[in-house]
Give the backbone structure.
Amino acid sequence: MNTLFHELESVNPNMKESGKSTSDTLERLFSALSDRTRLRLLNLMAESEICVCFFVEVLDIPQPKISRHLAYLRSCGLVATRREGKWVHYRLVQPEDPRAARVFTEVLAWLTDETQMKHDRKRLATLCCATLVPLGLREAPRPTVKRVREESDPVPDHAVVTAL
């Protein structure tokens, strides 16, 4: 284990200077990836940036809980924000460390095959493309999402649904 920490420090020697040791950074990365709600949030952001209101609607989780998890992901450097008027959009950020980036990329790839994650992406695509969206989403900017393909669905995997 010490070898991994030493290798990570050699890749990014400024980690200790920034106030965070490599072991702290490594621990925070795996802690961020160890929570089901945070994994569901990362899964939804894998294709595009998303406004908090869509997370609330898709995941059916109260906004304060989602905001708390997004703040944790942001503090770990996995998520960044962009403000557009009263809307805050969240997007993924690749870790600077190449090893951490590989772990992060593999986790995101793994999520694409998981049943609940597929369901969440399909729900997001449905909400983004609906002509009649829930009241809380009517003024929200819609994200651009890839359409999740079902076995019985004639639309090819590469079809992209664009925001309105």
Helices lie at 2-11, 22-32, 36-45, 52-59, 63-75, 98-111, 115-129. The radius of gyration is 17 Å. Confidence is low (pLDDT under 50) at residues 1-18, 147-164. The first helix runs from residue 2 to 11.
